[in-house]
Structures are given as structure tokens and as C-alpha cells.
């Protein structure tokens, strides 16, 4: 769906369509928030103190959710495989999430340093930049989804009697019974 919306954007400077990309940022923010929550929900059992589901459902902080994801990824020792285009490390992951958090169209528009005298969209919300950013976010969403699935499968294997040490070492052997 986002691809279709992005394809409709006018990439040429045009004051009439300057703000058209802003709803896309909002939609991506919501999608990333939901994926982060899903991943934290799946991986919470790997943390020393599992995350309270009510707190998880009420938070809107991408940074806090990303911090929990980093803890989960570290705990299961998946740092070397938690990668996608634009995310080569956990630091890149945090930077991308922080960039999305900072790019909230309303917050960007009202910050005095971002206001342009002509009333046009701030530079970081121009359509060509949003299109490039959206590509990185698509990769992130795929990564978060695959990681949540991997965590769920890992927990299923643990329930089937495979020890945590075997799971974390990646030495699970034959898993079909």
C-alpha cells in the first residue's frame, strides 16, 4: 500500500503538493511502532524482567521500544544477523528509529528552525527525501517482522524441550518429531 502512495508523490518542487509526503511518514511511524511492539511482545521472555503488556500497549515511544529490541537481540545473540538494507548494526537500527521519531511532520513543522519563510515543507520532509527514507523503513519493517517470527519459533522450540543454551548457541539439531 505504501508503495502505491509513494508512487503518486510529485517529486518536483511544487508548493501545491509540498506537504503530500507527510501522511506517509505518519503511517510508517505507526507501522514501525506496531512491529516493534510485536517484536518486544514475542521476545519479552528473553529479558530478565519481561515487559508488562499494559505498559507495552500504552507506550508511543519508538526509542524505548527500540531499546528493548536491542536488549532482546543482544540476549539471543543475533547481533550479526539483525541486518537489512540501511541497517548494518544495532547502532544503525537505533539511528534509523531515532530519525523516524524526530521526523514527525507536526513536530518538524512547528520547530522554529525548520520554518521556511515561503511556507513550504521543511527540507527533511520534501518528497524525494521521504521516498528515500521510506525505502529504508520498508527494509526495517521486513527485518522486524522476520525477527519477531524468529523469536516466536525460538520460543516454540524451547517449549518443545530444547534448552536455552542450545537455542542461544544455535545448536538445535533435528527439530522435527
Taken together, the total number of domains comes to: 1
State the total count of DSSP E strands: 0
Catalogue the unreliable spans: 172-177
> What share of residues are in beta strands?
under 5%
Helicity range of the residues? Answer: 55-70%
Per DSSP, the total helix count is: 8
Radius of gyration: 19 Å
Account of the 3D structure:
This protein has 177 residues and is mainly α. The chain has one domain (20-143). The protein is built from 8 helices and no strands.
Note the main attributes of this structure:
mainly alpha, 177 residues, 8 helices
Topology (elements, then pairings):
Layout: H1 2-7, H2 22-43, H3 53-58, H4 62-75, H5 90-102, H6 105-110, H7 127-159, H8 164-169
In short:
The protein has 177 residues and is mainly α.
Amino acid at each position: 500500500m505504501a508503495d502505491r502512495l509513494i508512487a503518486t508523490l510529485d517529486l518536483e518542487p511544487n508548493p501545491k503538493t509540498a506537504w503530500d509526503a507527510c501522511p506517509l511518514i505518519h503511517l510508517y511511524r505507526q507501522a514501525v511502532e506496531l512491529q516493534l511492539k510485536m517484536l518486544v511482545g514475542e521476545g519479552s521472555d528473553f529479558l530478565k524482567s519481561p515487559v508488562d503488556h499494559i505498559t507495552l500497549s500504552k507506550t508511543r515511544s519508538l526509542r524505548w521500544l527500540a531499546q528493548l529490541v536491542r536488549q532482546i537481540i543482544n540476549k539471543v545473540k543475533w547481533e550479526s544477523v539483525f541486518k537489512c538494507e540501511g541497517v548494518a548494526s544495532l547502532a544503525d537500527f537505533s539511528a534509523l528509529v531515532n530519525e523516524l521519531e524526530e521526523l514527525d511532520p507536526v513536530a518538524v513543522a512547528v520547530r522554529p528552525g525548520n520554518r521556511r519563510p515561503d511556507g513550504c515543507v521543511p527540507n527533511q520532509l520534501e518528497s524525494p527525501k521521504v521516498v528515500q527514507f521510506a525505502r529504508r523503513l520498508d527494509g526495517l519493517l521486513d527485518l522486524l517482522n522476520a525477527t519477531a517470527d524468529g523469536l516466536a519459533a525460538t520460543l516454540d522450540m524451547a517449549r518443545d524441550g530444547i534448552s536455552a543454551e542450545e537455542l542461544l548457541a544455535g545448536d538445535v539439531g533435528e527439530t522435527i518429531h
